[in-house]
Amino acid sequence: MRSPSLGTGLLALVLTAGVFVPGAQADPGTPKPGTPGTPTASEVRAAQDRAVAAQGAVGVLQRKLDAANAELDAASVRAAKAAEAWNGARWTAQQARIAAREAATASKAADRALAVQVKQFRDAIVLAHNSGLDLNAATAFVTADGMESLLERSSASDYLQARFDQRRNEYVAAADTAEKASGKAAATSQDAEQALADARVAKDAADAAASDAAVAATAIEARRTRLVARLAKLQGISVRLARKRQDAILLAREERRAAEAAAAAKAVKATPAVAHDPKPDEPRPGDEPAPPADGDGARAAIAYARAQLGKPYVWGADGPNAFDCSGLTSQAWAAGGKSLPHYSVAQYDVSTPISASELRPGDLVFWGDGPSSSSIYHVALYVGNGRIIHAPRTGRPVSEDSMYYWRTPDFYARP
Asked: Is Transmembrane helix among this UniProt entry's keywords (predicted)?
């Protein structure tokens, strides 16, 4: 009768150490075929078949794990896009409020200017009266409803007529300015209200996307846990070890992708920066430009960003305890003495576009969905040697990574 323990041990050996190779030289201590307790040839073949099946199952499970990871990444990207869309809507609303305040101020100034013109005109009437001009004409000037009516009723001298013409032109210009300023104030006020409403809608969308991403992350993590447990059982290892192997697989893939991208970047010849070029040359790690001078703020920006490592990602946050991507870069450069909007698209717009080959520590790198900078939805701070500091996404804190940890950036700019 075959020994169960020996048969089980052989199966485990086939599953974890490799496939049995017929004809291989036997170990001197291995029992010869036919020895009691030795598996038969059919049992060995069955064990081999089970090993092959197990390897196939392992492959299936690994593909499912890869799909789960990709699904989690996609959910995170959707949440990041929604968060930056809200940052954009909020920034637009802020700009609209500023424009509305400026327009209201301009309208008040125009009204004051019009009042001055009216007073100056009436002063001219008093002067005409004191100069001995026709009192009836002067009275008409004072009581006239408008310049046109006044001029029609006037019988003043040529001098007074010229003076009235001058005042009339000034009055008409002031009245026109006041009317336009009033209309602009009303329009910008409406724009501000609409922008605020849009921001509220975008905030709700960002909140929903973040909630969806969190739910998806929980579900995907539960699925990954089940898959890893099944994988561990098939491989005959502990769940803890299987999880460590999965983490190592993900890390190895990121490192391989980063190394391949960096190697490709080294082979690209540098070209001059083109402001409208959305796909500039890749940086060449190891051939870094000179570090920024102390006075340009980049060192302070990098130091600030490094001090935030490990803090959580929260969409819409700009510190001090949590950040989203553009919140981190805006606060980092605030420490460097430059003001950047809390919105990745606007950060690119107010900065100087550069090529990737011109990158130096303190510059910004961006990811987008298309050839236009309006598609940007993620930003990071370049710290040199092909590395960035950024607030990646929900579930991942502020971290320092390879610039290629995910995929090659699409845009580059210098604040």
From this structure: no
How far CA 12 is from CA of 1, 2, 17, 54, 242, in Å, comes to: 20, 16, 8, 11, 16
DSSP state of 388: E
Q: Whole-angstrom Cα distance, residue 167 to residue 190?
A: 34
Q: What are phi and psi of 137, to 5 degrees?
A: -65, -45
Q: CA distances (Å), 10 to each of 33, 43, 167, 264, 280, in order?
A: 14, 10, 110, 46, 57
Q: Three-state SS across 124-186? A: HHHHHHHCCCCHHHHHHHHHCCCHHHHHHHCCCCHHHHHHHHHHHHHHHHHHHHHHHHHHHHH
Longest distance between any two alpha carbons in the chain, whole Å:
144
Give the burial class of 343: count Cβ atoms within 10 A of its Cβ; 0-12 exposed, 13-18 middle, 19 or more buried.
buried
Q: What phi, psi does 66 have (nearest 5°)? A: -65, -40
Choice between 334 and 276, residue whose per-residue pLDDT is larger: 334
Q: Report the distance separating Cα 386 and Cα 382, nearest Å.
A: 8
4, pLDDT greater than 80: no
User: Terminus-to-terminus CA distance in the chain, angstroms?
Assistant: 79
CA distances, 116 to each of 144, 191, 381, 411 (Å)? 17, 30, 53, 52
Q: What residue ranges do the domains of the chain occupy?
A: 72-226, 272-414
| Average pLDDT along the chain | 74
Domain at 272-414: CATH code = 3.90.1720.10
What gap in Å lies between CA 86 and CA 324, rounded to an integer? 12
Are 210 and 85 spatial neighbours (Cβ–Cβ below 8 Å)?
Answer: no
User: Would the pTM count as exceeding 0.70?
Assistant: no
Query: Cα 43 to chain center, whole Å?
Result: 59
Burial of 21 (0-12, 13-18, 19+ CB in 10 A): exposed
Residue 203 clears pLDDT 60, i.e. is over it: yes
HSE at residue 288, side-chain half, CA atoms within 13 A, is 15
Which residue bears the tokens 């290629």? Answer: 404
Q: Which two tokens stand for residue 313?
A: 């990602």
Q: Say which residue the tokens 């430059």 belong to.
A: 338
| Residues acting as catalytic residues | 325, 378, 390
